[in-house]
Write a structure and sequence with these properties.
Helix content is about 45%, strand content about 20%. The protein is of the alpha+beta class. Helix 6 runs antiparallel to helix 10. The longest helix has 22 residues. The N and C termini lie far apart (about 60 Å). Keywords: DNA-binding, Transcription, Transcription regulation.
């Protein structure tokens, strides 16, 4: 006879999670046979689990192989946004807003979008009110480009081949090859600056928040009126504040020193 704990234990959930966890940076693409071997589950069981995960949007097929989708990030973001990350970031974001006089935001990547996790508003009147959960296209925003730039190479290529790149303003970069170059530049310099590509009259800039594995789990960002701060002023005065705050938050999360 099973104990009360055993009766409440949902084995199918355990098996589904074991399939998700079988994927890694070394094993981004797996066949049914490989998943069966890694999880210790039978091929018919793995097939049912994978089909369920595919229907839910966590897995997709590439020929005979399966790969995780960015939707899996939502599982981790539920924890990050509700506990450790936002708690650690909050005091640094408050300092940024005090020093600069502009709203400071924290966002994470979910699929093709950057999603706001939390914001520390300034007293300035903003044209648009962006709240927790607001989604913006990653390709056309500084917060999104920072997060994309820190993805593994194959995930960046996947994004560039499948994501839509509509022209939002006259300045929006929509060419995948140019976006690839921009993401490389962002990764090299350690920050992103977008000049009126998402919204006319608005410049935004961001820096990555890294975890203990050096992965960008969030971006720290700010938007300012283009008529108030030039690109040169941003790079000289305001951007360094964001970069330093993101670096300090990353240190608190155990990230390796970027120098």
């Amino acid at each position: 006879m099973k104990s009360p704990d055993e009766k409440d234990y949902v084995q199918s959930l355990e098996r589904g999670l074991s399939v998700i966890l079988a994927f890694s940076d070394r094993r981004p693409r797996l066949t049914l046979g490989e998943l069966s071997e890694l999880t210790g589950l039978s091929r018919p069981t793995v097939r049912r689990l994978v089909l369920t995960l595919e229907r839910l949007g966590y897995v997709r097929t590439e020929g005979r192989q399966y790969v995780l989708t960015p939707h899996v990030l939502a599982l981790g973001n539920a924890y990050l946004s509700s506990l450790n990350l936002t708690e650690v970031a909050q005091p640094y974001m408050e300092d940024v807003t005090k020093v600069t006089g502009h709203t400071c935001s924290l966002a994470a990547l979910d699929g093709e979008d950057a999603v706001f996790l939390t914001r520390v508003p300034s007293r300035r009147v903003m044209r648009h009110t962006l709240t927790t959960g607001t989604r913006l296209p990653a390709f056309a925003t500084s917060m999104g480009r920072v997060l994309l730039a820190w993805l593994p190479g194959h995930e960046i290529e996947e994004f560039l081949h499948h994501a839509p790149f509509p022209r939002i303003t006259a300045r929006t970069v929509t060419d995948p090859d140019r976006l690839r170059e921009i993401l490389r530049e962002v990764r090299t310099q350690g920050w992103a600056l977008v000049d009126q590509e998402f919204e006319e009259g608005v410049r935004s800039f961001s820096a990555p928040v890294l975890d203990s594995g050096g992965r960008a789990i969030a971006s720290l960002s700010m938007s300012v009126p283009a008529g108030e701060l030039s690109v040169a002023d941003i790079e000289a005065e305001t951007l360094p504040v964001i970069v330093e705050a993101a670096r300090e938050i990353s240190k608190q999360l155990g990230a390796p020193d970027r120098g």
